[in-house]
Every structure is written in structure tokens, then in C-alpha cells.
């Protein structure tokens, strides 16, 4: 996952079945691979060439990310990542467009972890992310050699759907893991803690909202706003608690709402394995995420009490970007210029969003949020965000046609 | 795939003619046949290609959608590609066709339509689309050459000075590019800007825009003089397209005036002039006529009988005071007061609802084309502006402003800005 949000406590999650399977596969392949570090550790810097199947050692420091190889033959490789820095770090192997080929997270200082990935010929980037934020420190990696013949296009799409499913399940699990302590804090009457835990849970929800929307009533029950209330429907969900926490500042009677929210999130997580995902629903979902941004985030309408609209914004963008990166290999084969445009536009949007990141004590800081309060934005800054959102929405709308074209 | 270039008008012929045929039998059928034979109908198109851009001296249509854009891309190639795409889209729209291959409803089901569609079935409505380049396209606020064209910035494209009494809103002023879309149907004008803005996404975005209705000047002797929102005839003495000599003298940039790429072009000054409608409406007729310098009913100059009677600025009344007030708008705007300087005006009335205090946010969206703004608009506005200038200033306020170099017309196969970008 591209973590846009540093302060979320990382996954003490119940791993999904898919993750368990993935973890098992990693463990097995790591055991089966060469355990020798000799070849890898001979070079202090990057630039070496590792032989097939040998371990690549990576030294992650706070300011550098040094791999023992910058060129590899195609095939399966295991990266042994040692954190020599002071911050908790994570390690990624990225294919072009920041498509995640593999990742290991939560590598504490002085800890080593391994990552095994199958690498096809092409250009990659290795990234260490001290503090687990931002784009990280990058190093190039070139993989060459005999290629398995290019995957058939439908196989690429199948792979995209399966990776996206893994992402959705991971996010859903994270949603549960962030909503649970939030709800607990509300019920315990700890308003300050609940306020700080509110936006982390929102980020997870926003990244998979189109999936939630496919379950009819669940999305409104979790995410309705006061304007959505009609005769006979009570105001419930995240935004009711937001109102209690940030506007009326009275959570004395919020317990039942909090319980209902958690129950609905649990229901959502349980239903996700049954959701049908196709390349088309993925692509349309990505577009709808950006449409959400255009409609209610960039206007500051969604989080009217907490003002953490930029967190939702980031969540929507992350969700859309993930769809795109999963579909990217298939798109590359069909519409290379669309890929070029989207690479540029996503980078521009995320860079712009990044300029509004905030840290504790900084201007516009909202407890628990990685971004400034919506109120801290000038009209010109809001317009700049709106312009970027419009600019990406058009090429994003071209994905469905590109992937359904023969 | 559906057939590509099914034009909006041929579809109109099929749909509209078909509907008519149901109603009146053979007559509808004949109408379809006629439309097909001539490739046109009576909706009217204005030629897109030519020596000059359409929309300057071509007879003023009734509706306007004007937009100024900020260019956000830093890539010259992207900007050029966008201008080419704009030209192709404009050419299609001015001919009454949809934008793009699939148009409104003929493209792939999973792709956004290449035309936004709200003009589908409507006639071309004499649509003209006119493009201009603002000073800020050439050099940024720090004087930096943005696209390698700074050396091609004409001296005549000098930033307008600040005039006394201006209350310019930055959000309604400036712009790297402008597009003036005029048509006899507001939906067609809006459609034109909307499609160009959509093509521009990621490369340029709308900085501000203005809708206009009711042309407030006459650019042809074939047109009658309209009234502006003050209720006065406007544009009586405007330059007319029939007077080629005057156009050559005052509107079209001549070879040698500046960089070659502007020859055949013209400079546009756009001003959003809000009228203080409520005070004006409670002003006595005699005062209104004194302020303007013309009678409200016929439009004749004060002291004369008919609209087109010559303005006599020397005439005095029985008491020896000038018939046309010393501060009357017509006097201070007149060429004789300004060293012969004249403008081709092409403005529109606008009403943007009310201002929150219950007052009409309305006025004149002033558009004037000229050969050199320094010698023309700036000269005239200097006469008019300020407390000691035009008596009208008590009832108006300039709150938006833009200046643009409108290149010459596009030849078939060419594109807007070709001359500018080809020379650098």
C-alpha cells in the first residue's frame, strides 16, 4: 500500500486468507532459496550484478537505500532488507508507475526482513521508506534476460483483478482495525482520543468506498451525511460521530451510534469476499472515487465538522491510483499514451496533495490527521486542487474503453 | 463502431426532418432533401477559415460565452498540441458538427463521448470562436520566457495601465488565453467553451468566464442599433465591417506593425463593466441623457433629431453652455476628443443574478478590437476614467479586465498560433 498516512498504527490485523496464503508462499520460497549472503554482501554499494536466485541485500538507513545489485537476471529473487536506521522503515519493489511488485512493512531498527518476488525483464525501482512515509529513497533496478513471453492481455487483466482484490481485503481489514479503537474511544467517553482516531479510519474507508457502495445500504449507513437524512432514516455512521465529536462536542449519547458503526463495518468486511470485481468495475470505481473528490472533498463539504477533507481526498486518490497501477500493465499494451498521461497526472495530483501535509504543531494541524485542516487552505489552493482533479478525471474516464477494446 | 463523421446538422436533418415528416407529410420529406442537397440549412454558419478570425468584424450574434484560461502545462509541445486540438474542434463546431470522431452518441459505450452533447440537434447558430493570447502567455510575472516566445511578444501587447476608478477583481481579470464564442443560441455558445475547456484539462483551465446576451453594438450596417442595460442605444457610431478603410486603419494589424505573426490579427480589450442599475434607474431622464449625451428615445445626439445625425460637440444652447455636456460619455469617447482613436466594439449585456444585497449584478461586458491598444483603448479610457472624467462613471465600475493578441485567421489545414509558434 502506498501509505499516505503516517500516524496510522500499522496493521495489527487479522490477515485475510489471501494474505495468509501470500505470507506462506513468501516463507516457503525464502526457505527454498539460497541462504548465502556472500555474493550479495561483497559490494558495499549498489551497482553489482547478482546471479539468478541469489539473495540481494538491502541496507536501509534513514537517508539511503543501498542494494547489493542494481541489475538482476529475470526470475525469482529474494531481498534481504536490514534496517540500519533509527526509524521504522518499509521496503518496496516498484514496477513503472509505482505498481507494487512486493513490499515489506514495519521493519524496526536493527531488524532484517526478506521479500521474495518474481521479476520479469524491465525497469524497476527499489524504495526504502524511513518513517514509512512519502515516496521514500529510491534506487533503480534493471532486470534483464530471457523473458517469459509477454503475458496474454486477458491474463494481465485477471492478474489486475486478483491484486486489486487483495488490496481491497487489506484495506477492509485495516478499516476494521482503525474503526475498532475509534469506536472504543467514543464509548469510553475519551473525546480527544476519538477525535484523533477519526481520520485514520476515514482514510481506509475512502480508499475502498466504491466497493462499499456495491452493497446498497451499507455505504449510507456508514458514511451518510446529515443532508442524506430523510423522514424515517436516522442520522448514523461516521459523520454522526463526527458531528458529536467536533460540533456539539457531546459524546454522552454516542455509544449506540458507535456500536452500530462497528457492526456495519464488520458486515462490510465480511461481505467483501463475495463482491464481484471485474476490470470494468475497477475502472469505473476509480473514476467514481475521483468524482467523489470533485463533488464533496475539494469543496470541503464532506467533513464539515472535523475539516479533515484532505484525508478523505487522499484516501480516494489512493484508491483510484491503486486501481490504475493494477490495470497499468494491461493498459500499457493497449494505450501507451493514456498510461503516460495518467502517470503524469497522478504524480502531479499526489505531489500537490503532499504540499498540504501537516505534522503535529504545524499550521492547520488536526489531531490524528496527516493533512492540514480544510479551513487552512486558501481559495487559490482549493482551486489548484480542483484543477488537478479535473485534469485527471478525463484520462481516468478513458480507462474503461481502453480495457474493453479488443 | 458507428460511422464517424455524422454531422450534427445532418443528424438534425434526419431527426428534425423526420419529425416534421410525421407531422406534415411530404413537406418534411422535401425539407430533408433540401438540407441534404445543399449540405446546409437556413441555420447559418459563419466561415471558420479566412484571412481574419471570424467573430471580430463578422456581424455580432446575439449571445456570448467568453472564457479566459490559465495555461498550466509548462510544455510547449503540449500547448501546441492543445491549440491544434482546439482548432479542429472549433472548426467542427462552427460548421455545426460534433467534436471528435464519435461525437455525442456515436462513440464506444465505455468511453466518455467526445462531444459533451448539449448542442446535438441544434443548428450552428452562426457560431464563431475567436482566440487570443494574453501577455502572461509570453512572460510570467517574473519576466521569464514561458514557452520560448517572449521575443515574439508584440510591443502593442503592453499590460494595460491602472485607470483611476478601476476596481478590478483578479478573479475576473487576465488570462494566458481567451476564447470568445458568439452565437445566436446561448446553448451553442456555452457548448463551444465547454468542449474547449474539456480538451484543455490538464493543460489549461478556465480562469474566469462571462456569459453575455443582447449584443450592445452593431458591427454591420445591416444591423439595427441595440440598447444596453441602461436603456440607451449602444454602438451607433461603431466601426462597421462595410468600411474596409476604417478597419484597415483601426482594427487589423498591418505587416510591419510588430512581429509578423500578428499581421491580419487584432488586439482585444475585454472589460467587465458593472452598472449600478438601482441608482441609474432612479435618475431623472434629463440627467440620464446629459450623462450619455444622447436622447434615450431615438438615440439622436442631444440637440439633433435622428439617431445617425452627426454629433456636434461645438453646439451651444441659448445660455451659451455646450449642448452636449462637457463630461458626457459620447463627448469623451468620441474620436475627435482622442486624436482620432476608434475601436470596433463588440460587447454584450450580462446579468449574473444579484449580489447578495438584492442589487442586480449586471452591466456591459465590453469587448473592443483594435490595431494597437496603446493608441486606442488606453488613449480613450484615459479620457473617460476617473472622477473628473466620464459622467457615466458615477453609475458604472470596471471590475474585470483582459488584454489579448488575437492572431490572424486560420487557413485550411492550419491552427491557432501557427504563426507564433512556427517563428520561434
UniProtKB/TrEMBL annotation, chain A:
InterPro entries: EfeM/EfeO_iron_uptake (IPR050894), EfeO_Cupredoxin (IPR028096), Imelysin-like (IPR018976), Imelysin-like_EfeO/Algp7 (IPR034981), Imelysin_sf (IPR038352), Iron_uptake_EfeM/EfeO (IPR053377). It holds the Pfam family Peptidase_M75. Keywords: Signal. One of its GO terms (cellular component) is periplasmic space. Residues 1-30 form the signal peptide. Residues 160-397 form the Imelysin-like domain. It comes from the Bacteria. Transmembrane segments: none annotated. The keyword Signal applies. Residues 37-142 form the EfeO-type cupredoxin-like domain. It is found in: Periplasm. The keyword Signal applies. Belongs to the EfeM/EfeO family. This is Iron uptake system component EfeO. It comes from Motilibacter peucedani.
Automatic annotation (TrEMBL), chain B:
One of its GO terms (molecular function) is peroxidase activity. Residues 225-410 form the Dyp-type peroxidase C-terminal domain. Its EC number is 1.11.1.-. PANTHER family: DEFERROCHELATASE, DEFERROCHELATASE/PEROXIDASE. Binds 1 heme b (iron(II)-protoporphyrin IX) group non-covalently per subunit. It catalyses: heme b + 2 H(+) = protoporphyrin IX + Fe(2+). GO terms for cellular component: cell envelope; cytosol. This is Deferrochelatase. The keyword Oxidoreductase applies. Pfam families: Dyp_perox_C, Dyp_perox_N. Keywords: Heme, Iron, Lyase, Metal-binding, Oxidoreductase, Peroxidase, Signal. It comes from Motilibacter peucedani. Residues 53-213 form the Dyp-type peroxidase N-terminal domain. It is found in: Cell envelope.
Amino acid at each position: 500500500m502506498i501509505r499516505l498516512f503516517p500516524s496510522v498504527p500499522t496493521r495489527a490485523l487479522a490477515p485475510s486468507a489471501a494474505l495468509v496464503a501470500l505470507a506462506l508462499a513468501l516463507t516457503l520460497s525464502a526457505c527454498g532459496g539460497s541462504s548465502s549472503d556472500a555474493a550479495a554482501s561483497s559490494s558495499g554499494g549498489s551497482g553489482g550484478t547478482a546471479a539468478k536466485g541469489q539473495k540481494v541485500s538491502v541496507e536501509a538507513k534513514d537517508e539511503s537505500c543501498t542494494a547489493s545489485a542494481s541489475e538482476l537476471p529475470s526470475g525469482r529473487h529474494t531481498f534481504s532488507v536490514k534496517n540500519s536506521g533509527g526509524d521504522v522503515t518499509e521496503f518496496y519493489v516498484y514496477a513503472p508507475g509505482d505498481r507494487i511488485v512486493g513490499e515489506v512493512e514495519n521493519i524496526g531498527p536493527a531488524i532484517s526482513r526478506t521479500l521474495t518476488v518474481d521479476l520479469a525483464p524491465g525497469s524497476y525501482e527499489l524504495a526504502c521508506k524511513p518513517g514509512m512515509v512519502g515516496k521514500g529513497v529510491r534506487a533503480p533496478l534493471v532486470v534483464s534476460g530471457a523473458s517469459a513471453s509477454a503475458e496474454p492481455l486477458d491474463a494481465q487483466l485477471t492478474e489486475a483483478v486478483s491484486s486489486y482484490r487483495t488490496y481491497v481485503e487489506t484495506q477492509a481489514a485495516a478499516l476494521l482495525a482503525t474503526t475498532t479503537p475509534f469506536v472504543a474511544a467514543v464509548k469510553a467517553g475519551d473525546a480527544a482520543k476519538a477525535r484523533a482516531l477519526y481520520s485514520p479510519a476515514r482514510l481506509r474507508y475512502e480508499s475502498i468506498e466504491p466497493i462499499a457502495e456495491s452493497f446498497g445500504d451499507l455505504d449510507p449507513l456508514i458514511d451518510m451525511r446529515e443532508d442524506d437524512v430523510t423522514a424515517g432514516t436516522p442520522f448514523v455512521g461516521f459523520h454522526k460521530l463526527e458531528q458529536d465529536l467536533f460540533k456539539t462536542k457531546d459524546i454522552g449519547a454516542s455509544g449506540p451510534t458507535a456500536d452500530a458503526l462497528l457492526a456495519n463495518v464488520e458486515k462490510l468486511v465480511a461481505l467483501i469476499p463475495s463482491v464481484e470485481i471485474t476490470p470494468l468495475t475497477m475502472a469505473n470505481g476509480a473514476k467514481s472515487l475521483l468524482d467523489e473528490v470533485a463533488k464533496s472533498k475539494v469543496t470541503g463539504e464532506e467533513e464539515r465538522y472535523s475539516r479533515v477533507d484532505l484525508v478523505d481526498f487522499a484516501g480516494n486518490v489512493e484508491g483510484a491510483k491503486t486501481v490504475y497501477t493494477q490495470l497499468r500493465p494491461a493498459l500499457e499494451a493497449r494505450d501507451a499514451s493514456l498510461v503516460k498521461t495518467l502517470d503524469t497526472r497522478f504524480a502531479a495530483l499526489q505531489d500537490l496533495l503532499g504540499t498540504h501535509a501537516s505534522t503535529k504543531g504545524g499550521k492547520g494541524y488536526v489531531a490524528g490527521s496527516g493533512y492540514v485542516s480544510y479551513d487552512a487552505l486558501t481559495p487559490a489552493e482549493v482551486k489548484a486542487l480542483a484543477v488537478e482533479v479535473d485534469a485527471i478525471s478525463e484520462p481516468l474516464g478513458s480507462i474503461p474503453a481502453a480495457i474493453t477494446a479488443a | 463502431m458507428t460511422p464517424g463523421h455524422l454531422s450534427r446538422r445532418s443528424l438534425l436533418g434526419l431527426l428534425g426532418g423526420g419529425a416534421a415528416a410525421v407531422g406534415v407529410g411530404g413537406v418534411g420529406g422535401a425539407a430533408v432533401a433540401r438540407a441534404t442537397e445543399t449540405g446546409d440549412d437556413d441555420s447559418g454558419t459563419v466561415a471558420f477559415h479566412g484571412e481574419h478570425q471570424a467573430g471580430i468584424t463578422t456581424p455580432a450574434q446575439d449571445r456570448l460565452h467568453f472564457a479566459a484560461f490559465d495555461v498550466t502545462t509548462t510544455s510547449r509541445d503540449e500547448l501546441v498540441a492543445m491549440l491544434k486540438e482546439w482548432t479542429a474542434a472549433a472548426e467542427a463546431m462552427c460548421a455545426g458538427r460534433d467534436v471528435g470522431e464519435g461525437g455525442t452518441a456515436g462513440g464506444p459505450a465505455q468511453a466518455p463521448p467526445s462531444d459533451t452533447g448539449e448542442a446535438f440537434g441544434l443548428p450552428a447558430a452562426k457560431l464563431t470562436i475567436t482566440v487570443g493570447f494574453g501577455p502572461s502567455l509570453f512572460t510570467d510575472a517574473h519576466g521569464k520566457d514561458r514557452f520560448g516566445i517572449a521575443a515574439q511578444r508584440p510591443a502593442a501587447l503592453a499590460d494595460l495601465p491602472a485607470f483611476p476608478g478601476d476596481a478590478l477583481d483578479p478573479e475576473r481579470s487576465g488570462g494566458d488565453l481567451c476564447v470568445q464564442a458568439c452565437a445566436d443560441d446561448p446553448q451553442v455558445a456555452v457548448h463551444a467553451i465547454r468542449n474547449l475547456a474539456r480538451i484543455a484539462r490538464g493543460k489549461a483551465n478556465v480562469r474566469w468566464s462571462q456569459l453575455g446576451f443582447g449584443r450592445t453594438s452593431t458591427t454591420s450596417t445591416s444591423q439595427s442599433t441595440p440598447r444596453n442595460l441602461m436603456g440607451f442605444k449602444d454602438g451607433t457610431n461603431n466601426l462597421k465591417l462595410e468600411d474596409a478603410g476604417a478597419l484597415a486603419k483601426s482594427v487589423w494589424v498591418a505587416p510591419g506593425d510588430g512581429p509578423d505573426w500578428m499581421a491580419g490579427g487584432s488586439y482585444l480589450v475585454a472589460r467587465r463593466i458593472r452598472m449600478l442599475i438601482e441608482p441609474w434607474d432612479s435618475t431623472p431622464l434629463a440627467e440620464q441623457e446629459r450623462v450619455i449625451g444622447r436622447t434615450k428615445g431615438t438615440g439622436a445626439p442631444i440637440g439633433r433629431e435622428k439617431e445617425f445625425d452627426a454629433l456636434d460637440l461645438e453646439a451651444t444652447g441659448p445660455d451659451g453652455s455646450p449642448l452636449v455636456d462637457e463630461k458626457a460619455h459620447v463627448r469623451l469617447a468620441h474620436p475627435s476628443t482622442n486624436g482620432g482613436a476608434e475601436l470596433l466594439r463588440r460587447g454584450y449585456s450580462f446579468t449574473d443574478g444579484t449580489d447578495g444585497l438584492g442589487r442586480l449584478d449586471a452591466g456591459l461586458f465590453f469587448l473592443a478590437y483594435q490595431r494597437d491598444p496603446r493608441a486606442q483603448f488606453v488613449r480613450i479610457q484615459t479620457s473617460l476614467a476617473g472622477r473628473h472624467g466620464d459622467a457615466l462613471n458615477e453609475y458604472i465600475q470596471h471590475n474585470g479586465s483582459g488584454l489579448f493578441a488575437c492572431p490572424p485567421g486560420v487557413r485550411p489545414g492550419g491552427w491557432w498560433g501557427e504563426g507564433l509558434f512556427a517563428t520561434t
